[in-house]
Design a protein that fits this description.
CATH topology: Rossmann fold
Bound molecules: adenosine-5'-triphosphate
Order of helices and strands: EEEHEEHEHHHEHEHEEHHEE
Mean pLDDT: 92
Distance between the termini: 44 Å
Number of strands: 12
CATH superfamily: P-loop containing nucleotide triphosphate hydrolases
Low-confidence stretches: none
CATH architecture: 3-Layer(aba) Sandwich
Number of helices: 9
Length: about 260
């Protein structure tokens, strides 16, 4: 799906947390939203999955304003993983993933055998098959995060909205989650703190500072010494990985 932000200003009470965000994300692009704490990443994402209505501007999905489009269509096509989502702790992991199929069902329909296969496949792809019968309340933070990704995959969305999807994950699962998401071929917009992961997996990086876009483009164009300094207040260098040539990020404190 194509995602467009047209002059989006949004915030809380009277205060805008993001201002005049204008951005076009082509179908299949993987956009990493990066920026310091409080720079507005989650706020931008909330305007996409209808958790926060823009005070000005529009968010368009394949040309339709997400705030006036058919609610059911958006629920079917957009899968979101919020930052503090714990999602129904009484459910088992499999039951939680089955919820991903609900937007596709009619009012009183039950999941079909094909839906159940999709659920099983999503559990396997995220390494959650052995967790299927465990209540969510008994899972570790990272295990729960993977189950919630499985739920998003089971939804078979056209757009994935991910707010810090790797923050509880161990290194293996950080890499496998972003590799999996990048390989889906759907449009992805993800808030990420780990610039190295963003540089390796995203097609486009959007750096936010104080609620405004400071830089946007391919990793090599955005992750420059100037942006590391001015946006993140660190010294940084982008170097090619000696093994696969992909961009890697090295960071140092400004005064070192
Ligand atoms: N519910 C809220 N009510 C009031 N202000 C809020 C609320 N949520 C966020 N803010 C403020 O809006 C600004 C942007 O917050 P946001 O959560 O979008 O930043 P972020 O870039 O996602 O940060 P982080 O990296 O810390 O998760 C911050 O100044 C924050 O304090």
């Amino acid at each position: 799906m194509k995602l467009v932000f047209e002059g989006v200003t949004a915030g809380y009470a009277e205060l805008p947390a993001v201002r005049d965000v204008t951005l076009t994300i082509a179908p299949g692009e993987f956009v990493a939203l990066v920026g310091p704490n409080g720079s507005g990443k989650s706020t931008v994402l909330k305007t996409v999955y209808r958790a926060l209505s823009p005070a000005a501007g529009r968010v368009l999905l394949d040309g339709a304003d997400v705030w006036t489009a058919n609610r059911r269509t958006i629920a079917r096509r957009v899968a979101a993983l919020g930052q503090e989502e714990h999602g129904g702790h009484d459910f088992t992991a499999r039951e939680a993933v089955r919820l991903g199929r609900y937007p596709h069902l009619g009012g009183f329909d039950r999941l079909s055998a094909q839906d159940e296969e999709i659920v099983t496949a999503a559990l396997h792809r995220t390494g959650c098959a052995t967790l299927a019968t465990r209540p969510l309340s008994t899972l570790s933070g990272g295990e729960r995060q993977r189950v919630l990704l499985a739920r998003a995959l089971a939804q078979q969305p056209g757009l994935l909205v991910l707010d810090e999807p790797t923050n509880h994950l161990d290194p293996q699962h950080q890499i496998s989650m972003l590799g999996l998401v990048a390989a889906l071929g759907v449009t992805v917009i993800a808030a990420l703190h780990t610039l190295d992961l963003a540089a390796q997996h995203a097609t486009t990086i959007v750096a936010l500072k104080d609620g405004r876009i400071a830089a946007a483009g391919p990793p090599e164009a955005v992750l420059t010494p100037r942006v590391f300094r001015e946006v993140f207040a660190v010294d940084g260098t982008l170097v090619p990985d000696p093994v696969d040539g992909r961009p890697r990020v090295l960071l140092r404190g400004l005064d070192r």
